[in-house]
Write a structure and sequence with these properties.
Layout lengths: L6 E4 L1 H14 L4 E5 L1 H6 L2 H10 L4 E4 L2 H9 L6 E3 L9 H5 L3 E4 L2 H14 L3 E6 L14 H10 L3 E7 L11 H19 L5 E5 L1 H6 L7 E2 L21 E6 L2 E5 L4 E2 L5 E2 L4 E6 L16 E4 L2 E4 L9 E4 L10 E5 L9 H8 L3 H6 L7 E4 L1
Parallel strand pairs: 1-19, 2-3, 2-9, 3-4, 4-5, 5-6, 6-7, 7-8, 8-9
Antiparallel strand pairs: 1-10, 10-18, 11-14, 12-13, 14-17, 15-16, 15-18
Helix pairs in contact: 1-3
The structure holds pyridoxal-5'-phosphate.
Keywords: Isomerase, Pyridoxal phosphate
GO molecular function: alanine racemase activity
Protein name: Alanine racemase
Length: 366
């Protein structure tokens, strides 16, 4: 078998461990594993199957299309889809028993219209904006929305929900303010005659705010083993990014490496060429600022990250062509982690793993 060029390895045992652990941390609530954006770059269908095996009662996706793909793959668990543009035909979603979110009377009308055409009742989660100012109904318009929902035929309100803005900053007063508004919204929904479930918590709130677990928790990033809060949790990273040594060579002191000649050898040294670059998800901003795991230790990538390749300085060690190179992994052996890449490039681990969904990167499941 050829050595891998650019490969992400998805450890579904770790994913199942994470889901079971998260589910146990919220004992009174069901777990909705969020698998939007192709399972945060890990593969939505495979992740969804493993999550359900490990105890996730629900699946969460952003678009209806993502939800329908899960259904088409045979996933029968309840699925919530929460964001699509105007003009979306929700009828296939209603037919497939996908729960749909409504943040406004217009969205509710679109869903009710689809339910009428599908000849079925649509299950709706009404979303209230409690302070993120993104999706969700503003509190001022909320009474009108819940009253409308209560009298719209073919629509049954299953839950009211909202999304948190600063749950990853533990102790931030913004979360309490959002929780108070959420409470008001729930009471107004009850006053309108609804009897909905409630859900609010993302991974960060699941891990730090048991008072906000309500009926369902919606972890995303933690399912993939990445912890968004500086609080210990038994989470195991699911994605490893690996490649292999394509070529080795000695260069003499004074020779430079890669475009721009930004790195120059201070002594004779051995270089290993690794055939992954920014087209494969290695940020160019990591040029001269990253390491790889090669031959049992961390070694620096020297010079610029190119579109298709990076160069590793191995000093006087002589790795073999074909040797495995780990770009990032769980970190247990000392290999670089997703968090390391995110911190160095000024982003969050979410963006790194989600960005690994690329046509040239193969994905294998363990
Ligand atoms: C992405 C998302 C989540 C999961 O958030 P994490 O921070 O990854 O746990 C939960 N709810 C909604 C509405 C989301 O969009």
């Amino acid at each position: 078998m050829a050595a891998p060029r650019a490969e992400v390895v998805i450890d579904l045992d770790n994913l199942r461990h994470n889901v079971a652990h998260l589910d146990a941390l919220a004992p009174g609530a069901g777990t909705m594993a969020v698998v939007k954006a192709d399972g945060y770059g890990h593969g939505a269908v495979e992740v969804a199957r493993a999550a359900v095996q490990a105890g996730a009662a629900w699946l969460g996706s952003c678009s209806l299309d993502e939800a329908l793909r899960l259904r088409a793959a045979g996933l029968t668990a309840p699925i919530l889809a929460w964001l699509d543009p105007p003009g979306t035909d929700y009828a296939p979603g209603v037919e497939q028993g996908i729960d749909l979110s409504a943040s406004s009377p217009r969205q509710l009308d679109d869903i009710a219209d689809a339910a009428t055409r599908a000849g079925r009742t649509a299950r709706v989660h009404l979303k209230v904006d409690t302070g993120l100012s993104r999706g969700g109904c503003p509190p001022a318009d909320w009474p009108e929305l819940v009253e409308k929902a209560a009298r719209t035929p073919n629509v049954r309100v299953h839950a009211v929900w909202s999304h948190l803005a600063v749950a990853d900053e533990v102790g931030h007063p913004g979360t309490d303010a959002q929780a108070a508004r959420f409470d008001d919204a729930f009471r107004e929904a009850r006053a309108a005659g609804l009897d909905p479930l409630r859900h609010l918590a993302n991974s960060a709130a699941l891990l730090t705010r048991s008072d906000l677990h309500f009926d369902l928790v919606r972890p995303g990033i933690a399912v993939y083993g990445l912890n968004p809060v500086p609080v210990p949790a038994d989470l195991r990273p699911v994605m490893t990014f690996r490649s292999s040594v394509a070529l080795t060579k000695r260069i003499a002191v004074g020779e430079s490496v890669s475009y721009g000649m930004t790195w120059t050898a201070k002594s004779d040294t051995t270089l290993a060429l690794v055939p992954v670059g920014y087209a494969d998800g290695v940020p160019r901003a990591l040029s001269n600022r990253m390491h790889v795991w090669l031959g049992g230790r961390r070694r620096p990538v020297v010079g610029r990250v190119c579109m298709d390749q990076v160069v590793v300085d191995c000093g006087d060690d002589r790795p073999a062509e074909g040797d495995e190179v780990v770009l990032f992994g769980a970190g247990e052996r000392g290999e670089p982690t997703v968090r390391e890449w995110a911190d160095t490039t000024g982003t969050i681990d979410y963006e790194i793993v989600t960005g690994m969904y690329r046509p040239r990167v193969t994905r294998v499941y363990r």
